[in-house]
Amino acid sequence: MEYFIYILLNNIIPLSILIGIGALLHFFFKLDIKTLSKLNFYLFSPAVIFKMLYESEISLAILLQVLLFFAVFIILLFLLVELVIRIRQYKGNMKTAMRNSVIFYNSANYAIPLNQLVFIGDAFTLSIQIIIMMMQSLLPNTYGIYSVNANKSDRRDIIRKIMSLPVIYVIPLGFLMRGFEIPIPDAIYQPINYVSNAFIATALITLGVQLGSMKWQLKLSDVVLSNTLRLLVAPALGFGVVWLLGIKGMMAQALVLSCAVPTSLSSVLLAVEFDNEPEFSSQAVFSSTVFSIFTVTLVIYLLQFIP
């Protein structure tokens, strides 16, 4: 019950308020969703990723083990979603939108505070979640960009778009500057702080603007399927992967918990920026965030059975 109330008060209600503000702002002022999307891709998201990597303490051994888990988990999840897509016979943009809604999950502003609640501020589990967050930031900005443009653009144009994204460069830069302990002058670090602190609010307001601009043709069966794969099947797969790799204890628990969070805002930002089923993507993000109150609480209860 404690986790249920915490998730409700610290994730669902604050997120819903900001989403509601975005919808209201669009209702009164008709905000430009493309401009908001570009701000998220080119400014706010790179700033928050750089800041978290620069300030984190991650050992090489933990990094390699977590990367192995992430690679196996994502490959298996991708294959599972592909099977579902073939069974459902999705076509065109819907194939990519469904895939993104399951594979990209909210590993930052939802998973990090959740990790710190469940593991009582443990630095070790936080470092695990930061690595997952890094990969979940890199994936939408590489594979995600490719997938939504594969049927629309020339391959060279897609590569050019990917290489124009700052996230590609801030991840190695953050690691290098932290590894070599390169100090950043206050005059530069303060603006980075200001921008990174604005990321969550801007991303959620963008989602609210998208929800407010929709015609609300509810894609119920598709949204339910996406939510089921993201909130129930993905954490079950996470349990299987830690068992398969022989990962135990607190690391195994942190990795499974990282798989249980709702669909990432990245899927909406990609959908809006590249016109790839934005209505379905917005509905999937919003509904998975709401239903995660129940599913994440269940996963937290089941963590005690991991040896």
Task: Give the SSE layout.
Elements: H1 2-29, H2 33-55, H3 60-88, H4 93-103, H5 111-118, H6 123-149, H7 155-163, H8 167-179, H9 186-197, H10 199-213, H11 220-245, H12 249-259, H13 265-273, H14 278-302
Helix pairs in contact: 1-10, 1-14, 2-6, 2-8, 2-9, 2-10, 2-13, 3-4, 3-6, 3-11, 4-6, 4-11, 4-14, 5-6, 6-7, 6-12, 6-13, 10-13, 11-12, 11-14, 13-14
Task: Give a structural overview.
The chain has helices at residues 2-29, 33-55, 60-88, 93-103, 111-118, 123-149, 155-163, 167-179, 186-197, 199-213, 220-245, 249-259, 265-273, 278-302. It is mainly α and 307 residues long.
Give a quick summary of the entry:
This protein has 307 residues and is an all-alpha fold.
Largest sheet: none
Strand percentage lies at under 5%
Shape: globular
Mean pLDDT: 86
Order of helices and strands: HHHHHHHHHHHHHH
* Low-pLDDT sequence parts: none
Identify the quaternary structure here: single chain
Measured distance between first and last alpha carbons? 23 Å
What fraction, in percent, of the residue positions are helical? over 70%
Provide a count of the helices.
14
Radius of gyration: 19 Å
Count of β-strands: 0
SSE-based structural type? mainly alpha
Structure characteristics:
mainly alpha; 307 residues; globular
